[in-house]
Amino acid sequence: MIYPTPLAILLAALGIPAALMTAAISPAFWWVGMAWAGAVLIGGLVDALMLRDWPKLELAAPALVPVGEPFPVSVTATFASARKRTLEWALGAGPRIELAGDARRTSDTGTAAWTARASRRGPAIIGPAWARWRGPLGLAWRQRRLEHKERVGVTQNIAPLYRPPVQAMMRDAAVGMVARMHQGEGTEFQSLVEFRTGMDRRSIDWKRSASRRELVAREYRTERNNQIVFALDCGRAMVEPIKGVTRLDRAVTSALTGAYVALKSGDRAAIYAFASQPKTVSAFASGTGQFPRLQSAASEIDYSHEETNYTLGLTQLGARLQRRSLIVVFTEFADPTSAELLVEAAQRLLERHLVIFILQRDEELEAATEIRPETPEDVSRAVTAAALLKERQLVITRLRHLGSHIVESRHGETPERLIDAYFAIKRRGLL
């Protein structure tokens, strides 16, 4: 496509008042205005004829990207001639893709680069792309559109597994002080050893000590092969975005991180998702070699705009488990009614199992209470936010009184906090 530049339009427009003034002052020279317009038109045609190069456009994007993580996208134009040009670019993207900054770019290198981020899991599209450049005279644009659209698969984000804090926690689980605690502070009896200074006096076996006439203590080891279930609420409240990524996607990332650590620690892990009814149920995986099975199950978790049925979802989960398990529930309650149903369902679940509730702090509500009010609307917003936060804390307190463990953190700290809580439970032998 070839069309005039703003400079050509401006020059043509300037010819109109010049022609009117010439005709008013000297009617015999009325043709000057027509000559001016013709000169601009001829100049534009000459400039367009000099734009003979038709470049080859190529769009490059990764085939798979993790949700919430930035990734590069580039468009390259290859010309037959080596003449230097300044190109202006534009790039389109589907609803799951967000481009950082402006979608338009200007470059002298023949390549334009963007940083993009996927806001939701699933198939996404990047494209089409446009490139245009001026002629040597600056009077004509030539534009080409690349109709090709690159398909990008948006997968779960397991980047937290490679963060230094998580790697340090996993190393501590295998070596060093924490590994020594596996032998000294577990729940499964291992052997009798001579009592040494620094050991817990409650571990002394008084009957054996009396028969041997020396202090001996029971040595325990942490029981392995425990069942860990990561239950994800994928109802309406979990679709709410936090910093551009939904609560559900952040929960999936934390669940997969916790599952990998559990598998590496010798336990068994499973994924369970529910909304108005159970949606995804995976079999228990053992060993890190079966971690891809959990990833595959997590990829099937879809977004839902239905209200969460805690009674049905958690009751069916409890019925599926034949032995005492650690259940990690990722959820968010938006109103007192759903919170009450959550408490009732948790009470029945806690009769047999150990439950950890993972809650992501509502930073928008917290920010609303901290902003200095300047209008009546600000005051009303702050009062409402404070009331909602108070109700939230009441529910958290009730869940703690029932015997459940609560991990409430900012969205970026959830994987580390979950792993810390998991190791604390293992060290205390609560399972």
From TrEMBL:
Q: Which residues form the DUF58 domain?
A: 194-371
Is Transmembrane helix one of the keywords UniProt gives this record? yes
Q: What is this protein called?
A: DUF58 domain-containing protein
Q: Could you name the domain of life of the organism this protein comes from?
A: Bacteria
Q: Which organism is it from?
A: Pacificimonas pallii
Mark the transmembrane ranges: 33-51
Query: Keywords in UniProt for this one?
Result: Membrane, Transmembrane, Transmembrane helix
Which Pfam families does this chain map to?
A: DUF58
